[in-house]
Amino acid sequence: MTDAGPLDADETTFLAAVRSGDAARFASLTERHRRELQVHCYRMLANYDDAQDMTQETFLRAWNKRESFKGHAALRTWLYRIATNACLDLLDKRNDRTPVPSELPDPASELLYLQPYPDRMLPEDPQESVVARETIELAFIVSVQHLPPRQRAVLILRDVLGWPASKAADALALTVASVTSALQRARVTMREQLPDRRLDWRSPATHELSDDERAVVKAYIDAHERNDLDGLTSLLRDDLRFAMLPEVGPVLMTADDAVDGWVSGGLFRRGHDDWRGTITMVNRMPAAVLYLRTPDDPVHRLFALAVLHVVDGRIAELIGFDATDTPWLELPPTL
């Protein structure tokens, strides 16, 4: 695997660290790639905890295989290759990382291992940031999980990272023809999974919340704080896609059905009627952090995180998470 052009200062210094066995210098040069590698692993695995583990595994493998780095490829390319194969090895071993058919009347599958990704851990490199939103949004992450692992790796390497077919083939020990075929099949699946989304992930995309998005998430929080069922219903598109993980997978439903389901589950009844909320972002998406105060409690405690996809001023997708078990998001426990 080769990258065009002479070695830059990083590769030259790294090569010297490899040859001398300088572990501290080796760690310093690889550590600067941690955030982007962790996002790469998250795209492969849809789980923050697993992404952390596989990033650490990448650094361990890199140290153990340091003699294989000859400077023919960029350090970043070499690390991505190791990270991709670490994720593939995990997926080969773990059948709980394959979407399972939902018993609900919906063609989607359950992703009970899906976890939100904190924006503060996204890469600071502006070249990564311009594509980060549409390739870190939950809809993309969920859709990618429906690809077989090696198709998933090909799609991410080729269409997200922009690698040429020859480099992706070398990284995955495949032929260029196999990579081209896998990419074609993966793109077909992604068009089926994301029929209404822009699929040109290599062109610039925004990563800041629009005024429209901020207004909708604020209205969503306000509706909870006022116990306003009509207001909540009016925010939802009629073809809402909803999931509350880890209980069930994504399902399509009408806005009225969604609200009826929430009410039957206790929403706005005594004990579930004293809400407060704040606006945040995860996966470059607008999100409402909801805090609930029960009758015998003097404070509002962290309860749920609702991640919203807003289209034309209404909520098209809502994925809820139990926020009490997401320490990596660093949300205040009380409000």
TrEMBL record:
Which keywords does UniProt give here?
Answer: Nucleotidyltransferase, Sigma factor, Transcription, Transcription regulation, Transferase
The answer to whether UniProt assigns keyword Nucleotidyltransferase to this entry is yes
Family, according to the entry, reads as follows: Belongs to the sigma-70 factor family. ECF subfamily.
Pfam families tied to this protein = Sigma70_r2 (PF04542), Sigma70_r4_2 (PF08281)
Q: What is its EC number?
A: 2.7.7.6
Superkingdom in the source lineage: Bacteria
Stated name of the protein: RNA polymerase subunit sigma-70
- Organism for this UniProt entry: Actinomycetospora chibensis
Query: What is known about its subunit structure?
Result: Interacts transiently with the RNA polymerase catalytic core formed by RpoA, RpoB, RpoC and RpoZ (2 alpha, 1 beta, 1 beta' and 1 omega subunit) to form the RNA polymerase holoenzyme that can initiate transcription.
| RNA polymerase sigma-70 region domain span | 30-95
Any one GO MF term held by the record is: DNA-directed RNA polymerase activity
Keyword Transcription regulation belongs to the record: yes
Q: Domain RNA polymerase sigma factor 70 region 4 type: where?
A: 144-189
